[in-house]
Amino acid sequence: MKEILESKRVLIGITGGIAAYKVNFLIRELKKMGADVRVIITGAGKEFVSVLTLETLSNNEVYSELFPKTGDKRIPHIELARWADCFLVCPATANFIAKSALGLADDLLSTVFISYNSNVIIAPSMNENMYLNKVVQENIRKLREGGHIIIEPEIGELACKEEGIGRLASIEKIIDWIKNVLIYRDEFKGKKVLVTAGRTEEPIDPVRYISNYSTGKMGFSIAEEANLKGGEVTLISGPTFLKPSSNIKYIPVKTAEEMAEAVKKEFLRNDVLIMTAAVSDYKPKRVSKSKIKRENERIQIELVKNEDILESIGKAKGNKITVGFSLETEDEISNSIKKLKKKNLDFIVVNNPLVDGAGFGKDTNVVKIIDKDENIESLPQMTKNELAIIILNKILKLMNER
Ligand SMILES: Cc1cc2nc3c(=O)[nH]c(=O)nc-3n(C[C@H](O)[C@H](O)[C@H](O)COP(=O)(O)O)c2cc1C
After folding, report:
1. Backbone torsions φ then ψ of 283, nearest 5 degrees
2. For residue 343, what is the domain's CATH number?
3. In this structure, are 215 and 282 located in the same domain?
4. Which of 35, 129, 37, 131 shows the shortest CA–CA distance to 91?
5. How many Cβ atoms from other residues are within 10 Å of residue 76's Cβ?
6. In angstroms, what is the span from residue 93 Cα to ligand 1's centroid?
């Protein structure tokens, strides 16, 4: 993995946002991966990060001036635009976004920006009110429509001490996008991928439900990675605090019945179904119209089986690829093989939430993957993003074999 970006030329534009200091860490990581990095910084950017640090980390001159010094015959904006394999603007201020949406070219960065017509990635970062401002959103929409990749900022504590959307996306995510643009882009281009995530909630009365601890992290990771690889992604999820990227078609649902209905409808137009959702096996037979009162010593709630979505789909899957997840706390292999066969899956990912590093809400997972021929692959503990990539690569291989 070390030299994964060997000889790739990454041009980074830094603008005057408080998150500019994070670019130091980004450059260090890119250099470790073998990339050649050059930096353009705006006048405001220099207020936030030291040119000397950037030059030392990138091992290259840092560019800022549109007009070369007397005697220097180079035209920096043309040279830099020709040089780059990929152009990342990080952090991108509201000001830079507005200028680039209008096509203004009044400093080196904005001039290189409109001279460059290849792989552009923009990572905005700003205060929430700025980010949600209608004009800023309109400018972002224009840039996205122009084919540029926008890495949406995250929700969290902002430098202004407010909590909200606007924090620069994680360095890991930005590097994922760079790798994707330079190496993996388009592996899923033209492929339609349907992912389910999270838990379902089965109502008992208007204020209570039966559910489980699933947060949706695994399914969201798969959806995001498939999106990164150029797939047309639909994500159906039960209740969750997670937010998908805006170019993922998102269908929020609550109950197993709603999920089954949405999956059946969407499955027809998709090539792949990856079902990570922890769908409730049972639901209350009757849902009380009013809140059940605390009167009797005991009450009984009769449960009835929910439809097994994958089993219904497996019968008519044709040439499509279906992948299931199984959650077992005992006899995981034999139970999962039974599910694999019964649901006519291409492969099944077996979780045991009781294993260290696995389970609901965690960022890591420990799984085994069982294929149609009952080959079992035991994977070490890894992040859900890493696992998502392994699953998608497996699907890609199956698609290419067909
Ligand atoms: C302390 C401070 C922090 C700032 N942080 C941000 C920020 O995070 N995002 C942003 O869009 N603008 C921020 N600004 C405003 C920009 O620096 C300002 O709009 C500037 O004109 C941007 O210039 P540039 O886009 O050419 O780099 C900040 C300003 C100050 C004084």
Report:
1. -135, 155
2. 3.40.50.10300
3. yes
4. 131
5. 19
6. 6
How far, in Å, from the CA of 44 to the mean position of ligand 1? 7
Final residue in a domain of this structure, among 184, 202, 229: 184
**Cis before 239? omega within 30:** no
Q: What's the token pair of residue 139?
A: 């400018």
Give how many domains the chain has, as a whole number. Answer: 2
CA-CA distances (angstroms) from residue 45 to 32, 273, 314? 24, 44, 55
Is 86 part of the annotated catalytic residue set? Answer: no
Condensed to tens digits (0 to 9), the pLDDT of residues 306-356 reads 999 999 898 889 999 999 999 888 899 999 999 999 999 999 999 887 887
Decide whether any atom of ligand 1 lies within 6 Å of the 385 Cβ: no
Q: With 90 as the cut, is the pLDDT of residue 62 above it? A: yes
Residues in a beta bridge with 383? 364
Q: Are 99 and 114 in contact (CB under 8 A)?
A: no
**Residue 317 DSSP class:** -
Q: Is the CB of 324 under 6 A from ligand 1?
A: no
In angstroms, the CA 123 to CA 130 distance is 15
Is this prediction's pTM over 0.85?
no
Distance between CA atoms of 243 and 239, rounded to whole angstroms?
A: 11
Report if residue 110 sits inside a domain.
yes
Residue 309 domain boundaries:
192-401
Q: Which two tokens stand for residue 209?
A: 């439900």
From atom 14 of ligand 1, which residue's Cα is the shortest distance away? 17
Candidates 160, 301, 333, 379; catalytic one: 160
Which residues pair with residue 336 across a beta bridge? none
Helix (H, G, I), strand (E, B), or coil: what is residue 397? helix
Strand partners, 203: 209
Nearest protein CA to atom 11 of ligand 1, as residue:
93
Domain identity same for 123 and 199: no
Q: Is the CB of 136 under 6 A from ligand 1?
A: no
Residue nearest to atom 22 of ligand 1 (CA): 16
Rounded Cα gap, residues 213 and 222, in angstroms = 19
Residue 306 Cβ contacting ligand 1 at under 6 Å: no
For residue range 179-227, list pLDDT tens digits in order.
Answer: 988 987 788 999 999 999 999 999 999 999 999 999 999 999 999 999 9
**C-alpha distances in Å from residue 69, one per residue of 63, 73, 88:** 12, 9, 26
| Three-state secondary structure call for residue 380 | coil
Q: Is the CB of 153 under 6 A from ligand 1?
A: no
